[in-house]
Amino acid sequence: MMRKSIDRWQFGDFQTPDCLARKVVTILGRDRNLKPDTIIEPSCGKGAFIRAALDEFQPKKILGFDINPEYLEQARISIAEYPNAGKVAFKESDFFNTNWQAIISDCPGYLLIVGNPPWVTNSELSLLHSSNLPEKLNFQQRRGIEAITGSGNFDISEWMLLQYADWLSNREGTAAILCKYSVARKVIRQIRNNSENRFLSALYSIDTKTYFGASVEACLLVLSTHAQTQADCEVYKSLDSKQPSYTIGERDGWMVRDTVTYQTWKHLTEQDPKYVWRSGIKHDCSKVMELERLGNDCFQNRIGEQYYLEEDYLYPLLKGSDIGNGRIHICHKLLLVTQKSVGEDTSVIRHQAPETWQYLLEHDCYFSKRKSSIYKNKPPYSIFGVGSYTFKPWKIAISSLYKRLNFYLVGHLEGKPVVFDDTVNFLSFDTKEEANFIFKLVTSDSALAFLNAMIFWDEKRPITIDILKRLSLKAVSEELGLLGHYQRWQ
Questions:
Q1: What DSSP element (H or E) covers 81?
Q2: Domain of 55?
Q3: Would 456 be classed as within a structural domain?
Q4: Interatomic CA distance for residues 418 and 240, integer angstroms
Q5: Residues 191, 60 within the same domain
Q6: Confidence of residue 447 (pLDDT cuts 50, 70, 90)
Q7: Helix, strand, coil content of the chain in percent (nearest 5)
């Protein structure tokens, strides 16, 4: 992929190819039978959607806006020979400083908002010291410090799409927008939660590698005001698909990826009080806490320093990448685990392992730089996500980052229980027999089908504890005719 220029990065500038714009308007006109009176493109770039709209529709007027005057001039030139070019008006405009309500109120009839807004986040723009940003309002309803500072990261297109939905709050119309798949789902969820509007929604997957030379999961999001009540979102495999592959919808208080499959397996929902999914250890100090064994009692940290340490507090570490790739029989790193439970006094290390305590003291500056509030008012060198479950000999683990449901049964390594980083979710057991039985339940076809219906695979961490704990292992055992075996472990 070519290196992004500063301008392309700042404005999320991925110009829409004409062939893609034509496919989009064909879906809107011929497949969805739209007949817009006014078409508006708030970030029209070089005019691909304007040209496609002129070929497909017969609107009363088309409005194209963009912040780049050179692009607008190219767009004007490109439509000069169109017989209905007189219906088009272009204007240079900064989206975030434009009185859109005044413009929208002057647009007659059924409104179609179309386009390809910037594919860039507010954090990326902050890195560039860019002013191409919306006002910092807590539109995502975040809590705590992120709500106060406006520091939560979000895609600029997410903010813009919510503005489009607001434009349609008191009139008939459709918004058809190219965006990241994750952005589309966030917008759909916010509209459902925070608006009285009733939108029909649909997602069409697009091949970004073909059209933009980028490896991003993206789609065409279509929002229309036709619905009388909130409806599920149909998902189409491609722009050429005539029938949806599955539907996203809210069921039993959750957003589920595949409503039909979920309905088949919803009887497997219920939290098990005995089997509790956990995340691995969080320490935020990997340069110091993660070490490699060089020889007897000699270890090297990630800074490259070598120390002789006692092994009392060192445990074999498997990271999310190890679990995700099935590397469970050998570990290359050890983790310095300073506590057996959250909040435990760490000063005992001074007496039980003096070399380890001295090592921690020498690297105190690294620990003091940790910003997370979870370490505030805690003993020095504290960690988080640790308890009796951490030190049980058998575990069922899965990486939260990898886009596949691969569970692994993990036992002792180097004579000690394995610990994980916080990108791994796991169950822990006292015996191999119990671990094997629960592993059989978790990896059964019915359990995997249920979980797959719940998981949105485009998420950064698609496999969350919140999703895993929805699966009732008791219900799965009953489904498999193994309820008696399950009850034995209760």
A1: none
A2: 6-244
A3: no
A4: 48
A5: yes
A6: very high
A7: 35, 20, 45
CB 473 within 8 A of CB 443: no
Structure tokens at 252: 């039993």
Q: Where are the beta strands (DSSP E) in 30-83?
A: 38-41, 61-66
Contact 26, 136 (CB under 8 A): no
Model pLDDT, residue 213: 87
- Which has the closest alpha carbon to 179: 200, 152, 159, 150? 159
DSSP output for 96-156 = GGS-HHHHHHT--SSEEEEE-----BHHHHHHTT---------TT---HHHHHHT----BH
Full strand arrangement of the beta sheet holding 233-236: 88-92, 61-66, 38-41, 111-115, 173-180, 218-224, 200-206, 233-236, 246-251, 254-256
| Cβ–Cβ < 8 Å for 115, 43 | yes
| Domain contains 123 | yes
Same domain, 289 and 184: no
Nearest Cα neighbor of 217 from 465, 52, 470, 462 is 462
Residues 197 and 179: their CA atoms lie apart, in Å, by 21
Residues 231 and 376 in one domain: no
Are 424 and 445 in contact by the 8 Å Cβ rule? The answer is no
266 located within any domain: no
| Residue 385 belongs to a domain | yes
pLDDT tens digits along 89-135 = 999 999 989 999 999 999 999 999 999 998 866 444 343 334 444 44
Look up the pTM and report it.
Answer: 0.81
Question: If DSSP codes are grouped into helix, strand and coil, which group holds residue 224?
Answer: strand
Residues 6 or more apart whose CB falls under 8 angstroms from that of 389 comprise 276, 278, 428
Question: What percentage of the chain carries pLDDT values higher than 70?
Answer: 88
DSSP code string of 144-157: HHHHHHT----BHH
Query: What are the Cα distances from residue 288, in Å, to 361, 376, 385, 478?
Result: 11, 19, 18, 47
Strands laid side by side in the 394-399 sheet: 278-279, 424-429, 394-399, 408-410
Per the listing, tokens 């797959």 go with: 452
Residues 455, 194: Cα–Cα separation, whole Å = 23
Neighbours of 110 (CB within 10 A): 18
Give the strands of the sheet with 298-301, arranged side by side. Answer: 306-308, 298-301, 290-295, 333-336, 314-318, 419-420
pLDDT tens figures, 399-428: 999 999 999 999 999 999 999 999 999 999
How many domains does the chain divide into?
2
Residue 273 has pLDDT above 90, yes or no: no
Q: What angle do CA 22, 24, 28 make, to 5 degrees?
A: 115
CA dist., res. 90 & res. 317, Å (int)? 59
Q: Buried b / exposed e across 201-226, counting CB within 10 Å, b at 16+?
A: bbbbbbebeebbeeeeebbbbbbbbe
Contacts of residue 461, defined as CB under 8 A and 6 or more positions apart, other chains included, come to 400, 401, 423
